[in-house]
């Protein structure tokens, strides 16, 4: 069983035409997993609906507590890309689980989003990797503490 936690981020953003702004909406992960005919048992828990730049240390503590308390050994966290590395670091002392954070550079509701690929990749990573904390984005897996987001290039890279 894989436990997916949602925290918001770009992957779940919706566009409000009235004010030309994006906001974090309800997660599409259940729909995407169903459409992909994922047969690995999974469950989803929503922790928050925030842009990752709005996450506080208290939010990270709540994420950490939820992951540590869940009985599943394989965990996926959907997360905004801007502070994903910080949240991964906050999880670093959880040693008995395989934890994979992922997100998207474009909302899942947009036609040209990397969300569906990243979700599938995160599912595979969570199934195959040894216990540890990882970020899985755009076909690469990074160990927590050894990755950063390159804002200019719009991708993650080892550091």
* Percentage of residues in DSSP E strands: 25-35%
Low-confidence runs (pLDDT<50, min 5 residues)? none
- Supply the helix-strand structural class: alpha/beta
Strand order, sheet with most strands: 4-1-5-6-7-8
Question: How does the major sheet shape up?
Answer: 6 strands, mixed
Give the helices and strands as they follow along the chain: EEEHEHEHEHEEEE
Q: End-to-end span in angstroms?
A: 32 Å
CATH topology: Rossmann fold
Q: What is the top-level CATH class?
A: Alpha Beta
InterPro entries: Asp/glu_Ase-like_sf, Asparaginase/glutaminase-like, L-asparaginase_N, L-asparaginase_N_sf
Domain L-asparaginase N-terminal: 2-150
Pfam family, one: Asparaginase
Keywords: Membrane, Transmembrane, Transmembrane helix
């Amino acid at each position: 069983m894989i436990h997916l936690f949602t925290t918001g981020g770009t992957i779940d953003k919706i566009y409000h035409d009235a004010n030309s702004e994006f906001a974090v909406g309800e997660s599409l992960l259940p729909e995407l997993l169903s459409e992909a005919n994922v047969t690995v048992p999974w469950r989803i828990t929503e922790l928050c609906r925030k842009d990752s730049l709005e996450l506080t240390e208290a939010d990270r503590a709540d994420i950490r507590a939820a992951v540590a308390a869940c009985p599943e050994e394989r965990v996926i966290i959907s997360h905004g890309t801007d502070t994903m590395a910080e949240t991964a670091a906050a999880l670093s002392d959880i040693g008995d689980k395989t934890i994979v954070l992922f997100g998207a550079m474009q909302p899942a509701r947009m036609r040209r989003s990397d969300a569906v690929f990243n979700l599938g990749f995160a599912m595979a990573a969570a199934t195959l990797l040894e216990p540890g904390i990882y970020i899985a984005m755009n076909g690469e897996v990074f160990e927590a503490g050894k990755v950063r987001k390159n804002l200019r290039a719009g991708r993650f890279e080892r550091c």
